[in-house]
Structures are given as C-alpha cells and as structure tokens.
Amino acid sequence: MEKEIYLDNAATTRVDPFVVEVVKEALLKGYGNASSQHSIGRKARAEIEGARKEIADFIGATPDEIYFTSGGTEANNLALRGLAKANPTKKHIITSIIEHPCVLETCKDLAKEGFKVDYVKVDKEGIVDLKEIEKKITKNTLVVSIMHVNNEIGTIQPIEEIGKICLNKGVYFHTDAVQSFTKIPIDVNKMNINLMSVSGHKFRAPKGIGFLYVKKGTVILPILTGGGQERGLRSGTENVPGILGLARAIKLENNHQKIMKTRDELVNGLLEIPGARINGSLKKRIFINVNVSFYGIEGESLMLMLDKEGIFVSTGSACASSKLSESHVLKAIGVDELYVHGSLRLTLDEKSGEELKYILKTVKAKVERLREISPFKLNLEEAK
C-alpha cells in the first residue's frame, strides 16, 4: 500500500512525538509506584500532582477536582453510577438520544435499578432543545448528562446554556467532552459544569488514560473498590506514563483554522457527488468532522474499498463500527433510510489537506462503482 491517509481522528489519534518523549522517560526512568514511600515513588507522586495541576489550570479547575481514569468510558460510568450511588433519593436522569453508547447503556442499567431516564430529542442538525431539558427537570432530578460534541456528526451542543439551566434548577450537570477537549475552549466554572469526562487518545495522548472533573461539593461515591487511590474515588495504581503524556498533550499547538479550511473544501467537494448529503449542522460543528451519506449505497462497502486505496475512514462511531446496525444518531436527526446505510465519518488532522484531491477523486470513483454494481436501479433525482 503506497498511501496512508488517516481520516479517523475521532476514533483515535496518532500519539505525538513530543508526547512520546515524556511517556518513554516515565516508562524507563520514572517507573515508581506513586503510592510507595521511597524516593522513586515520591518522585512519581510529584510528577502526577504536577500534571494534575497543569490539567486543572487548563480548564479553570483546582487540582483536587481532577480524577484520573482509564479513559472516557470509565469517566462517564463513574460520573453517572457514582452520582446514583451517592444520591439514592434522587431517581431521575436526563440525557439525550444521541449520546455515546457508554452513557446510553449506563442509563439503561440505572433504569433497571429503579431510575427514571428521560431522553431529550434533537433537531435535524442534532441540537438538543433547551426548553425541553428545562421542562423535564423535576425535584427528583439527579443529573442532566449531555455530550459537548457528538462523536458521529460533530454537532456542538449549547453546553454553557445547559449549565445555567442546571445551576438555576439545582441539579448536577455532566458533560462528555471526549470529542471537544483541546478543540473547543472549556472553562468549567463559566460553563457551570459539575462533572466532565475526557479521554487522552482523542488529542494525541496515549490510549488508556483520561480523567473525570468533579466540582467541589459534588456528592459522588466510587464504583471501584481497592487501594483508595485518587483520593478514594478511583482505586487502582496510577498510570504515571499516561498521566504525564496527557498533560504534555494539552500543550501541543493545533492549527484549527487550517483543518477547518480543509473540512470546508472536503464538504464542498463531496456535495458535488450526486446523491450526497452532509449529516448534522454545517455551522455548529466541530472543525475536524465530516459526516456524509451517499444515497442508495452501503457505507461498509465504501469504507472497505477506500481502505484498499490507503484511505482510512469509519462508518460512524468507532465503538460501534464492528456492529452492522443503523446509526442511532442518524436516525435521531431524521436521515432517510436510503441515506443512513451509506454514511461515512471522516475526521481530519493538519495533514488531511495534503491529499484532498486524491480523497475526493477516490471517494467519487468508489461511489460510482458501487452504484454500477448495485442490483437496485436508483433514481438520484429522487434523493432528498
């Protein structure tokens, strides 16, 4: 394979060489257990606390509000299950119908345990209805959990406005910021966020490390039992190399405008293909995301054909890409059945623009080929 064009940065990113340096140093030299009392252990502890402060400063928090986890899924589970465990008299949760599976599945489990879960709908661009959220909050509501940026269609939710509603109503507000962290400025105080989940491998840090921000005063209990690390909320030996890599990654420079320019050119080029549509909002959208559907073709087949040409994309959420099921996000925003199955998610980085012409040429050719060999005769003029 001559080319290697990686367009799946919402699934995971390449670890940056600048980050690799600090991770390698920690693996080879800073290998102490941060709970050990000898000098090597104390050195590891000092490095963790230094990283914790850097991360806290980055979002306007204090160091004792940052709890390291294995990633976004654990952070989301800790937020929701930890709140539910600590607040047994509050039995109502509000979330949206387009959340990540680790939030939706957790809510399903909590519903089996006696919680009432309300799912807020979204409009055709994937934006939640603020009035519906406010209307659904009751005296029994424990938490509102709405993701900052959707992992499939890249829609940006009005997080600050939701935070204000929750503050005024006296309920906790949790946001899954896995897709937005380092891409959109976040001030947890200004946005009135009580809990926030983050995963390092989405912004050029290693896999297996993330954190949960928990605002002081939030009543939450651990969901793992063990040695009492992370001030008793998240037991387990700290991943020192991962933590240091995560803190290093937030210092990386990101040319957002360059990527946005590539995204817009890619969108315009894809829309020139007959029977193509962009899913989600064109304006309230994270700058790395393009979610496109092609009328009457199979997205899985298109993805595999592009793979053979050195172009790596996904058909939706990476966590669900191995499941041949319809996207719950595309169905929620009302995408027509003949478009839903023909969707691709292309998520960009600074290198994506270098091969833009090749990407567009190849996608167009493969879409045309799939339509040629399709047993169904499609009338593209009927595409809507």
- The N- to C-terminal Cα distance equals 37 Å
Number of domains: 2
**What's the overall geometry?**
globular
Average of per-residue pLDDT values: 95
CATH topology name of the largest domain, in short, is: Aspartate Aminotransferase, domain 2
Number of strands: 12
Tell me about this structure:
Strands 2-8-7-6-5-3-4 form a 7-stranded mixed beta sheet, with helices on both faces. A 3-stranded antiparallel beta sheet has the order 9-10-12. 36% of the residues lie in helices and 14% in strands. The protein folds into 2 domains: 5-13 and 254-382, Aspartate Aminotransferase, domain 1 (Alpha-Beta Complex), CATH 3.90.1150.10; 17-249, Type I PLP-dependent aspartate aminotransferase-like (Major domain) (Aspartate Aminotransferase, domain 2), CATH 3.40.640. It is of the alpha/beta class and 384 residues long. Helix 2 (39-59) runs parallel beside helix 7 (240-249), helix 8 (256-270) runs parallel beside helix 12 (356-373) and helix 9 crosses helix 12 (356-373). The model has no long low-confidence stretch (mean pLDDT 95). It has 12 helices and 12 strands. The protein has helices at 17-28, 39-59, 72-86, 101-112, 130-136, 159-169, 240-249, 256-270, 299-308, 328-332, 337-340, 356-373, and strands at 5-6, 66-69, 92-96, 116-120, 141-145, 172-176, 195-199, 210-214, 276-278, 289-294, 311-312, 343-347. The protein is globular.
